[in-house]
Every structure is written in structure tokens, then in C-alpha cells.
Design brief:
Blueprint lengths: L6 H11 L3 H6 L4 E2 L11 H13 L10 H20 L8 E4 L2 H12 L5 E5 L4 H9 L6 E5 L10 H5 L5 E7 L11 H10 L3 E5 L18 E5 L11 E5 L37 H17 L1 H20 L4 E3 L11 E6 L4 H12 L1 E2 L8 H7 L7 E4 L6 H15 L5
The structure holds pyridoxal-5'-phosphate (PLP).
Length: 411
Amino acid sequence: MYNTYNVLKVQKLIDKRQISFLSLKRVNVLIYLDNAATTFPKPESVYTSIMNAMTNYGANPGRGSHAMAIEGARIIYETRELISELFNFDDPLRTIYTFNATDSLNLAIKGLLKKGDHVITTSMEHNSVLRPIHELEKYGIEHSIVQCEKDGSLNIDDITKEIKDNTKLVVTVHVSNLTGTIFPIKEIGEICKKNNLIYLVDAAQSAGVLDIDLKKMNIDLLAFPGHKGLLGPQGTGALIINNNIVLNQIREGGTGSKSSSVYQPDFFPDKYESGTPNLPGIAGLNAGIKYILKRGQKSILEHEKKIIDLFINEVKKIDNIQIYGSDDISSRCGVVSLNVNEMDSAEVAYLLDTNYKIAVRPGLHCAPLAHKTLGTEDSGAVRFSFGPFNTEKEILIAANALNDISSGKYN
Ligand SMILES: Cc1ncc(COP(=O)(O)O)c(C=O)c1O
């Protein structure tokens, strides 16, 4: 059982650790455990790259031939190359910039499926997959949703069972944003290849942390945000369109290319990238990916596994806490969701925020069928999600806070 931890002493240690926490203090958060929503803090180089783009070359890339526009275009291209390096992919022009993972998933799903097609997905998906495929019902596109196990894991044979003559696409998450369950994307990709199906991976919770290799894995479409594991700012994301796939674009507009034509260009990436790009955001993403490549994804993953392991082990010592997802640490990463006694998850998050300055996310996490799978559709859950800058001390403070809450300190 816990003794009350000396929170003030630890606060001082955290303050010394990173100047970025100065900005955390302004909004009164000390320990940020909501990295699955958006990672925070970012490496210092991300902030300086955004400022550099805004102050030194913040023109409109691709729209002019002056030096500032060319520098912007260079950064945008270099970032495509960094993304290709990270995911072992040869064609940087097939990386399409978007605003977030949702935008990427919408482009992939709506750009691919046509009336009469069938798509297979799972019960652990985020609404950024579930809502587009439900919307497409209106246009004669069918879907099947494979029911996952109570711990969030997937039996891949259940995907094979759902394949029909008109199945065109399989969409799965790589890591669940509710249980942290790691899906076997390599094996699912093999099933898709064997059955001539297109495989779309939602890497919202894995890009920048888990190995994703487009040469070794049969991933046709890879959707990911820039603002989570890739450590860029909000407003960034991308879709990689692999294996010579061509999607319909879902918006048209100015691209800075072929301006004499009133029709959308048909070459990559302009076919899918209309309007002024998010240059400061992409400059920040550029710095985030460089940080990951330098530190090494393996080292980031090891760090996060160590943190999760510690958190789960500490929380297991506390009475009346239910942790969701697999007990096997090797099959999960990034997030741990739980409930305390019969308490409302929002109340637990509120107590953590106001009494301990700990930021977590309660509720349903935009994944209604995942909550049904776990049986938490009424209660929701409190999600703790970790990033590359969380420390063991922060984890101990969070576990101590949960112990206080669970033992009725605020009743
Ligand atoms: C698994 C999963 N997919 C998609 C998304 C949507 O990401 P974004 O907020 O970048 O649109 C999220 C967001 O948390 C997610 O966890």
C-alpha cells in the first residue's frame, strides 16, 4: 500500500528536467498523461522550427518562385522524405499531407470505395473509421464489423470469415486508443494480399513508436496524424498511398500547378492536396520526425513500455481498480484505461486534474464499439496515455493519486 508521496519534492525535480514544463505551469497542469490525444510537450526543436517557418520563410509554398516560397517548398518536400525514411517507403510524392488522422482516413475510405463495394473493419476502431463507413451505407457501400475479444484483441481468422465476393477493403487500427492492444498488422496484410484486398492501417496511436515497414508489410494505405507519436503540432497528418493505388480525390482546388486548367491535376501529390499547405505545422512535424530518427523509435518504444509496465504494476497494488486490456505487456503499448470503484470516469479525471494537476482523458474516447467490446459503454473509462518525455516519478505520483481517490479521500 502507498504512503502519501511528497508531491512538492517531485514537482521540483520535474521543473528542473525540462523548460517546456514552464508552459505547462501556465495552464496549471503538471503531469501530462493525455498523449494519445496529442503528445505534449514536444521536443524544443519543434517549437523553434515552427517559429523559424513563421518568422523567416512563412510565404506560400508552391505558389511563387521567390526565395521564401522555395524554402517553404523545400521543407515540405524534405518532410515527405523523412516520412518515407521512417516508414521504409520509396516514393515521397505518394505521401499526402492532411490535417490529422481523421482527414487521412476519410480520404482513404471515401476515395476508394464505390457503390456495391464491401469493407471489413473491427469493433476496436475509432469513430474516424466507423463514421465514414457508416456514412457510406447511404451510398450503397456495405460493411462488416469483426467483433474483438473482451480484452480488445483480434482473432485474425474472423477477418477471413467476413470476406465476400465484393469485399474491397480491410481497415484496422494498429494500436487501440482504448486498450493499447497491438493488432497483428503484418499478418492481416498477408491475408489481404492473398485475397486481393486493399489494406488500410490506422496508425494514429503507433506512428513514431512502433515499427511500420511498408516494404516488409503489405500495407496499401497508411493513415497517421503528425501531432501524436510523430511529435509535430496539431493540424498535421498524412496518408501514404502505396502499391500504385489511385484514389478519387475528395476535394478540388488550387494546387499551384497546371493553373491554366479548371480540372484537378491527376498526378501525386497535387491530386489530393488542394489549398495552402500548413507550412508552420509541417516544419514542426519535420523537426518531430528528425527527433524520432535521432533518438530511435526502438528507444522511444522501450521507454514507453517501461513506463506502462511500472504504471500497471503500481496500479495493480491498489484495491478496487479495474484495468482494461491484456495483462501481457508485450501485446500493448501507449495507453492504459481503467475505472476506480463505481466512480464516474469524468469525476476521477476531475479529481486528478484539480488535486494533482494530472491531465488524463475520461469518457468514451470516440470509440463506442470498443467500449461495448469491453463492457464499458455506460461507465466510460479513465485513459492514461504516455509519451516519450514522461518519467517514472510522474507515474508514481499518478499511481499515488489513484490510491488516494480509490481509498475514498474525496468522498
Ligand atoms: C485510433 C485512432 N484513430 C484515429 C484518430 C483520429 O486522430 P486525429 O485526432 O488526428 O484525427 C485517433 C485519435 O485519437 C485515434 O486514437
